[in-house]
Write a structure and sequence with these properties.
alpha/beta; binds zinc ion; 305 residues
Amino acid sequence: MDRSVWLDALGAIKDAPPPVRAMFASDEAVEPLPEPGPHEWLSIHDESGQTFDEFVRTAARPPRSERTMYIQPVDTEGALSDACLATLASFAGAFFQLDVRVRPPLVLEPSSLLMRAAPDAGTPQVYAGDILARLYADKPTDAFCVLGITAHDLFPHPIVSFAFGEASAACRVGVASVARYGPPFCGEVPGSPPGEMRKRCCRVIAHEIGHMAGLAHCIYFRCLMNGSSSLAESDRRPLHLCPIDLRKLQWLLGFDFAERYRRLQQFWREIGEEPEAAWMGERLRAEAAHGPPAPILAGLRRAWV
Ligand SMILES: [Zn+2]
Ligand SMILES: [Zn+2]
């Protein structure tokens, strides 16, 4: 993929916030997405990407009254502790710069769910649409989005063998599954380092919330919004957005870049993930070196016209 495709996807670079421009210009901060292997997402799915301009044409900024994110545990008994859910809520709050509330656990009647045996493993699997419908029916009026987290393995469609999650941008409800982050599915990455499960959970919830925010799969760089058809491919996704998707998210939610980097740096540091904390620290330093923050530039532009 040549640079003109990235530039087109980024949108007018002169209007991009300085932290986005700084990231786009940094060989350390962005990594091109390599050609997909035979079983990887982009070999199986024909996706054309979503430019910043396309996103702006279709995305709806949430009103002030709808800026709370809800995390809804769904049949997570024995799979996710309250402490783990609190950690995930803390990460989501820092990543999206929205208030987060964890709702009381929801236990669904098995008879209310369409179930089958997973084609690849023979283990029980739940139709994700049934969980999405339930979340949408109970969606609070002040919700930016509701994300279900479940221990059920999911399928999104009868012809698809499984999904790590599914989300609706139109309804802003989504569900992420942690079923494949433990036995028998995680045999693909023997010897996973400690904390890998926690990072996988962070990765999948931010990816699904990203979909609810209107982000499509990213085909431009290694990015949290890359599609993934296996646990190994999921694990290769970074825990941050590429500059194109970062620009989209900031346009939608209007957060302060430095504040967001600081909170993410603090989050990763508190749970002992120093490489992730260091990456956020690098972005903070790069931003400081690239001039005034976006709101000041925007104000200047208004003064000029
Ligand atoms: Zn996805
Ligand atoms: Zn991206």
